[in-house]
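My current task is to audit a protein record that another person submitted. I have pasted the whole thing underneath without changing anything:
***
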Amino acid sequence: MTRVFLALGLVAILAMPAFAGGFLALAGSGGVAGDAQTSIVYDSATGTVSIDTPNDVNLTSINVDSASCGFIEANFNAAEFTGSFDTKSTCNFFKATFGGEFGDFTVGDALMAPGLTADAVVADLTAQGSKAGGGDLGPVDLVYLGGGGPPPAGDYKTYPEGIDDEQTSLVYWEETGTLEVNAPKSTELSSINVNSAGSKFIEANYDAAQFTGSFDTKTTGNFFKATFGSSFPSFVVGQSVMPAGMTPAEVLADLHIGAAADAPTGSLNGGGGLGVVDLIYAPVAIPEPSSLILLGLGLLGLAVCRRR
């Protein structure tokens, strides 16, 4: 039996991809997500790290070292490291699929310290790996998001700014945690897919009436709505479907808004993708439309009572 396990171990080791040239320094910080180059994506507002694979091929392995041992081990996305040889530590992570392949993925939310400069990240990380179909990764570059600290201007709008523009938006109400999808002014949507990095959607609070399609889904980590052959306008995803009191930065990071990987996606009625989906943030000082309606009805009732 021992010989059998030894033989299997040797077979697995021989099956591991061979890397030419060892670890390579990142090829600069001017990377663009979705191009033909493998990229490491660092979000300076949150410290989140993602892998952006080439647009024409998936990967079979990737191995990344941090010279400063700057990875926060508890913050790795464990669901992405389930292979027999996958590893994750403060100084390194390795992911491989033998006989399979993988695309873009989030290595971990807040995996590194936020606020690092692009030059610091480039100096700290080195990478190697292999592509599906053979060959190594070639030069790996850095996609650098944000400038550290609060989200840059334009990453979110304050309600009601943006409600009547031509961009698809997610509207978050700070006081209640209610989330809405705001369709462009001149067109409806045919599908939308939104991920929550922290699985913050409260499943019991979805508006079930909005998710009746055969392929619609609603979980703690994702919702998907689609109408095939028709379209839908703006809608409320759910009252208090997210925790109340989240900051704009927390919502941006959790819903991957502006990120290279797992950002909201979907399609417009008549064809074409949603483009960049932005955030409209409604702070506590602004009451929800439903609250305004109830207030108006209450005042009307009070006026009628006084007349009597």
